[in-house]
Write a structure and sequence with these properties.
Layout: E1 35-43, H1 46-51, E2 56-65, E3 73-79, H2 87-98, E4 102-107, H3 119-122, H4 129-143, E5 149-159, H5 161-168, H6 172-178, E6 187-191, E7 197-198, E8 210-215, H7 223-235, E9 240-245, E10 261-268, E11 274-278, E12 281-284, E13 299-304, H8 308-325
Parallel strand pairs: 3-4, 3-5, 5-6, 6-8, 7-11, 8-9
Antiparallel strand pairs: 1-2, 2-4, 10-13, 11-12
Helix pairs in contact: 4-5
């Protein structure tokens, strides 16, 4: 996992495989293009993000695939996990296309030059959650200009690190700081999110549907803290549900994984809880100490694994949710 010193929102600052950004960044997709698309975003420090400040201009890429036909369609923005864009994200894109939904797989790492997988176990900060939330908001801006995509029917979906991104992208505070006025995602779908973080004003969040998917056997991003997150969100009127799979580990939808793979060196945040007590400053909730990867709450060793039953059910559930929330063909 990634990170040195204080960071915001997070835990899973992990790295992926880098590729070069191709071509100039697109300001609009009015030409109806698909494929690999470079676009502008920002890279912020955790403190900048929490304070709503601007960061360094950055260009990243996404891969847009469209269903067949010429009708306007809904879309899903897919935010990868700590290992970068992988085959199973592309499989999700194909499955979404098969039911008439466009898919935009955003690569937050390559354009930032992140590509040393050892960063994930040695604790060097790679890309923080705040920067990735801005990536997600800028992806929505871009898709809103595409003639085949209905800007009112774009969903944000993320996995692990990308799920934490998706979860925190629901907060009104961050939307007001970084989301374009007049736009919002139609729904949010986090897969095995890290829910051990509280920020100020987190009782103010989107009224769009939020659907979490998680494994009860997850020892990396424990589901118990997501139960608490869901309870708090429901208490303030959010449309939120959590689907939990009893046999599923972290990454249960990644068909490239064995049923259970133990990685003994990866940093494990499952015993940590982070909170923003003063705006812009994250601390250990138990000790009040500034968030640090030298904190004793951090452990080593995580389990990941593919669980075909959970994946099959989650795939069907996501398709059913999209059919009722942003139905294709309408």
């Amino acid at each position: 996992m990634g990170g040195r010193g204080a960071i915001a929102l997070a835990a899973l600052l992990l790295a992926g495989c880098a590729t070069a950004v191709q071509g100039p960044p697109a300001a609009s997709l009015a030409d109806g293009r698909a494929g690999s698309i470079a676009f502008r975003t920002m890279t912020v420090t955790p403190r900048q993000f929490l304070l709503g400040e601007a960061g360094a201009p950055t260009v990243i890429v996404g891969d847009l695939t469209l269903p067949s036909g010429g009708a306007r369609v809904p879309a899903v923005v897919l935010m990868h996990g700590a290992g970068g864009v992988q085959d199973y994200h592309r499989l999700w894109a194909r499955e979404l296309n098969s039911v008439g939904v466009a898919a935009f797989v955003v690569d937050s790492f390559s354009g930032r030059g992140v590509g040393k997988i050892q960063e994930t176990v040695e604790g060097h900060e790679a890309v923080n959650i705040g920067s990735r939330i801005i990536d997600a908001y800028r992806a929505l801006d871009l898709l809103a200009t595409h003639p085949r995509i209905d800007r009112e029917r774009v969903v944000l979906m993320g996995f692990s690190h990308g799920a934490a991104t998706t979860l925190h992208a629901t907060y009104t505070r961050f939307q007001q700081s970084y989301m374009t006025a007049g736009l919002e995602y139609a729904a949010y779908v986090p897969f095995y999110a890290f829910c051990n973080t509280r920020v100020l004003d987190d009782d103010k969040l989107s009224r769009r549907p939020i659907r979490l998917f998680h494994g009860a056997a997850d020892d990396y991003t424990p589901v118990a803290s997501c139960h608490a997150w869901v309870a708090r969100a429901k208490a303030v009127g959010a449309d939120v549900e959590l689907k939990e799979y009893p046999l599923a580990h972290h990454g249960f939808d990644n068909f490239r994984l064995p049923p259970a793979l133990r990685s003994h060196n990866n940093l494990n945040p499952s015993r940590c809880f982070f909170t923003e007590r003063v705006r812009g400053e994250m601390v250990n909730a138990a000790t009040g100490q500034p968030l640090s990867y030298h904190d004793p709450c951090w452990g080593r060793g995580v389990t990941v694994g593919y669980e075909p039953g959970a994946y099959t059910d989650a795939l069907a559930s996501v398709k059913a949710f999209l059919a009722t929330t942003v139905a294709a063909g309408r």
